[in-house]
Amino acid sequence: MRQALTVVALCILSFMAGAIVMRLYDLGLQRGGSIASSASTAPAASGAVVDFTRQPLWAYGFVEPPKPGEKASPQAAPSRNLRPNEDANEQTKPRQLPGSSGSFSLVDIRDGGNVIDWYPGDHPSMPDIIRSGPAKMKEGRRGCGFCHLPNGLGRPENAPVSALPAAYFVQQLHDFRDGLRRSADPRKPNTNTMIDLARAMTEEEIAAAAKYFAAISWSPRVKVIETSLVPKTRIVGNLFLATEEAKTEPINGRIIEVPEDEERSETHRDPRAGFIAYVPEGSLAKGKHLVTLGGAQIVNGEIVQGKTTPCTACHGPDLLGVGDVPPIAGRSPSYLVRQLFDIQQGTRRGAGTDLMKIIVSKLDPNDMAAIAAYVASKFPPDPADSEAAAQLAESGRQ
User: Is 221:334 a contact under the CB 8 Å cutoff?
Assistant: First the structure.
């Protein structure tokens, strides 16, 4: 009986600590919002010193740390030009996908300045910023829907943006624009592209994009599988692609996120195509402990504080967000780990991240992988977990 009461007390204390952090987050967001909206003098670079010895390289799509001074080359602008190393007929022939009435060639699919739409019924009508990109951008113009897909589900190498609170979405674009949000790995090219696009967008375009993606419901996207072995892979554009079906390579603490169907995902950019996230064995249990209790434990009948604050305190008992705090359940674990590391290393700043930096300061790459694995596995949310968390919240208020 005493043990059970101690566990309940541990849960309530974790919730109350998280509630305090949540309130501080809200206050920081309010102050940060007013600052960021006028941050025309924000530095062009973060000035942060990144500890690459702790970097989860796999989350960024690399196998070795960057060399001194190494940085990303600008991404090539989307083009309708035929590729000389591919058959012209293959590039121009119409292609179809199951369940779609659309018909597009590879030339169409690769045209980021006029985003194709396989399933227009899956989302609202695309405004120009989603289909074609910032109007004032002369070179390198590409629509938001090209990388993040028309349904906003995104891909492991970029961000899942559907169902994000509009205010949060706007804040992130301001942070990109004002030099507050960068990648910890200077070789990550699409972060620089995102910065250029954000700087070219008008406030009207930012608001239109935020409204569009906020209106789209989140859908299951990632299948999380615990394993000690993964298929051999190659990396293309910071994305892992399996080179064989057999699992022969040790996972070694990584998360390896690959398309379920490479042709649908890569060749056709099918926004309904899913991904498999291979995660280390035991990471779901470890992740649940960190996400729900912050890693707190009971030792000899005494509560020992964990190394972080429960994620559920700010992101909600079902991890689907609270107010302007973003939902994280079911999102790409690779993306989630990149954000944890970027915040920890100080290359992602802006409203709300000062508190997040404290929360993630003690996490090592294995902790981050476990948290991301568990969070990615929690969509749709487990009704039992949500009910238990709601009861815990009620207990904390009494």
Answer: no
